[in-house]
Amino acid sequence: MRKINPHDFKVARRGTSREINRQIALNLIRAHQPISRADLARLMSVRRGVASLLVSELLSESLIFEGALGEAVGRGRRPTFLYIDSRQRCVVGVDIRASRTYILLTDLMGKQLGVVSSFQTSRDIDVLTKDLARRIKQMLADFSEVSACEGVGVAVPGMVDPALGRVLHAPTLAWRDVNLRDPLAAALGIPVHIENSGKACALAQLWTTRSDVVASGNSVFVSISDGVGTGVVVNGEVMRGRHNTAGEFGHVPLNIDGPRCSCGANGCWEAYVSNLATLSRYFGRDLSEGRPREAEEASFTVEDLIARARAGDAKALAAVNSTARYLGLGLASIVNSVDPARIYIGGEITTAWSLIEPIVRSALRERTLTDFGGATEIHIVPAEEHPRLRGAVALVAAPAFAAPMVA
Amino acid sequence: MRKINPHDFKVARRGTSREINRQIALNLIRAHQPISRADLARLMSVRRGVASLLVSELLSESLIFEGALGEAVGRGRRPTFLYIDSRQRCVVGVDIRASRTYILLTDLMGKQLGVVSSFQTSRDIDVLTKDLARRIKQMLADFSEVSACEGVGVAVPGMVDPALGRVLHAPTLAWRDVNLRDPLAAALGIPVHIENSGKACALAQLWTTRSDVVASGNSVFVSISDGVGTGVVVNGEVMRGRHNTAGEFGHVPLNIDGPRCSCGANGCWEAYVSNLATLSRYFGRDLSEGRPREAEEASFTVEDLIARARAGDAKALAAVNSTARYLGLGLASIVNSVDPARIYIGGEITTAWSLIEPIVRSALRERTLTDFGGATEIHIVPAEEHPRLRGAVALVAAPAFAAPMVA
DNA sequence: CGGAATTTGTCTAAACGCGGAACATATACT
DNA sequence: AGTATATGTTCCGCGTTTAGACAAATTCCG
User: Fold this and answer.
1) Residues A49-95 pLDDT 10s
2) Binning pLDDT at 50, 70 and 90, where does residue B214 land?
């Protein structure tokens, strides 16, 4: 039951019905491909004639294409199968991180086309824009088989206003109110979409999942690395909030008198479960930035820690288990406030999932209000799936499939 | 940008455009009444003919009525003003609380018609249903001028599945999986809608606010009394979650090692800011249920405490200020995760708002990530406005104005 | 091998609603 | 009294869904 905003609404025009049904058809083809016009009509409960007209419109825009004839199940004419046309259309995904920036070329459906390439991130926005433009052009030239690039999606670790194309604040990059989209778009001649990395990851999961329970309910993506990034999906839409800062569960406290967090407050979830927090726990002292580290500490990663924990290092195991417990306790806040159908977790710590799952689960149950809250589905997203890059790609691909704004 | 759920969608039919525009017209009349057909057409950017047809449909269903002719601004024919028809249609709101149950009769727009009546809440669901049915019938009989009662809305302190009409769990009433709706509806012969009280309050604020910044963004209602009830509105819709438990910010922790909460966990926000927590702080010992209290303690309320604080009792002031600080710290979690355009706060503690506002504000700023997050609008809802009862009423009135499900 | 049955995809006519313009009505200004 | 202007109604054109008929393609069966 949604309220119509009397200050910002969309009246239904003559073509609105068509627009709605066109998008439904497109999404059904996407979800069920290969599919015939007749099956599409059955799924939509419309006559075959309507489905045929919708399909011909989609064909003329080459959003879909007609493939080979399918096998008839019983007797009767064989159906012509329809597919989403992801041939020759490509998308570039960019993942800007504090240290390195990653680039990936995919087709419209997010299928990886090349290898992930990366280079060092320049904190100077002009230099970075030039670097990006040059490398993206090169990448597109290398893949001459793809003719048109639909756009570039950029995931940024920080606050982003996608409508304005500006990075409002990215602490790790020391950016404040920077226009990243327009210069890059101008340099490339291709549309550019930017978004906060947590929200982008949530978007990618939303558009790639086939689970209908996730599609109808809420879901949350939690990315745990240097910081904790989160994205929340409510009613099939990424939650933005008034200032594009919704979903920052990383800074919900576990203990307001707890350790100092990078955000300036104390005891944020991030201050307990970030990679640095886990390592600090292992080394027994605060490793936060600015403080001098010993050589061993500087190159030692969470993966190394997990390896030691698996090898039987009791101190390493204790540090990991401690993080696991705090992880579960923080997830409980997400469950109690959002009640998602599924939580996605990404980040280095997830490579230890088989070790930590029971601890996370029991900590989660400890603080959730209901039994089914404690049983909330948790889905690990391995680094190999490149969730941030896929999220960046989804920024470009998703709008073509989105529901039209109505009422 | 919303994703279409390929397993649950609504195809646009021949009448869908009309349905959409009808609801838009109805909402515009509601928001701008009195309004003429010509102005309505201008607001909707459609021709007057279309607006006229929509209006005549609404008139035939007597959702609106034609009032007196307005004054012409310049020259030309005088417009006929249209109004929402809230005459002769009434709604009953019911607020079930642990100790007492309150009933209110309003018109369709939520205007109070009678006085708020109340009686002791029976924990026996059958007895309570009978009590409610009898008193509601009596109340309707007393107001013979209203002919038709559109429905009864019931706000319940606990988990509710509105679709099934069941109370899944209400700890303070010791109810578990109870069907409250159907027996009451059967006894009254009127449709009954039930909902969690926090969500109902959020709904009421959504439907009564005229602020367009609230209408377009998220908003949160926080009700602080024995417990902390919350309701979250995202994109003009109350956030439900997978199991109807979304929005329970009362059990997000301030300190996981903090005081025991009624939910079984430690250090929930509720355990810091509920009335009992505030009083416990004043008396210097835990007053949670089950423990014996002294006579003075048992009858002493938060209002009394606030009165003493205002009168200069330093100990009372310290207790109130302490609650204020925790209140602000907890609100920060809401701001960081939901980024609402406005937060509504109800409950006894708000009678001290002039005292505590600076403390709440500074605590909020302490933990919010951005300056504008710390400046989030806070709106006090006084008890005289009966937010829970208005929420119950909104359950009945809102569906008639809601956007049609499309795509 | 040929006709019946069945399925797919296209086409046509009807129903319905928006888009645009003309028309009647009502009021104020000159 | 006549003109200008605004409101509300009516009529027709056009796009879209709805319903049904029809051609094409394929299998089944006599």
Assistant:
1) 999 999 999 999 999 999 888 777 678 899 999 999 987 789 999 99
2) confident
Tell me if B368 sits within 8 A of B332, measured CB to CB: yes
pLDDT mean over A249-276: 94
B63 pLDDT more than 60: yes
Contact A249 B406 (CB under 8 A): no
Measured distance between the N- and C-terminal CA atoms of chain A, rounded to whole angstroms: 12
Q: What are the C-alpha distances in Å from B155 to residues A209, A238, B148, B170, B264? A: 36, 29, 22, 12, 24
Measure A169 CA to nearest chain B CA, in Å.
9
The CATH code for residues A16-84 is 1.10.10.10
CATH superfamily assigned to domain A209-385: ATPase, nucleotide binding domain (3.30.420.40)
Write out the CATH class of domain A89-203+390-401.
Answer: alpha beta
Q: Residue B12 and residue A7: Cβ atoms within 8 Å?
A: no
Domains in chain B: boundaries: 16-84, 89-203+390-401, 209-385
Using alpha carbons, list the distances in angstroms from residue B11 to A21, A42, A89, A236, B213: 6, 12, 28, 17, 31
Q: Taking the C1' atom of C29, which residue's CA lies nearest?
A: B75
* % of chain A at pLDDT higher than 90: 83
A362: left (phi over 0), alpha (psi -120 to 50) or beta: alpha
Three-point CA angle B251, B153, B381, nearest 5°: 55
- Report the pLDDT averaged over residues B345-370: 96
Nucleotide nearest to B72 (CA to C1'): C27
H-state helical runs in B99-195: 125-142, 181-188
Mean of pLDDT over chain B: 93
Most confident of A59-73, A208-222, B234-248, B282-296: B234-248
Within a 10 A sphere around the Cβ of A53, how many other Cβ atoms?
17
Per-residue model confidence (pLDDT) at position B3: 95
Helix, strand or coil, per DSSP, at residue B3:
coil
- Whether A144 has a pLDDT exceeding 80, the answer reads no
Q: Is the Cβ pair A398, B212 closer than 8 Å?
A: no
Q: From CA A32, how far away is CA A18, in angstroms rounded?
A: 21
What pLDDT is recorded for position A88? 79
B285 in contact with nucleic chain D (CB within 7 A): no
> Most distant CA pair in chain B: distance in Å?
76
Q: What are φ and ψ of residue B52, in 5° steps?
A: -60, -45
Closest-approach nucleotide to residue A54, Cα vs C1'? D16
- CA atoms of A383 and A381, how far apart (whole Å): 7
Task: Give pLDDT tens digits for B280-321.
Answer: 999 887 766 655 556 666 788 999 999 999 999 999 999 999
CA/C1' separation B58–C21 (Å): 25
Are A332 and A361 in contact by the 8 Å Cβ rule? The answer is: no
Structure token pair of residue B92: 């009953």
How many degrees, rounded to 5, is the angle at CA B75 between CA B72 and CA B80?
30
Q: Do domains A89-203+390-401 and A209-385 have the same CATH topology?
A: yes
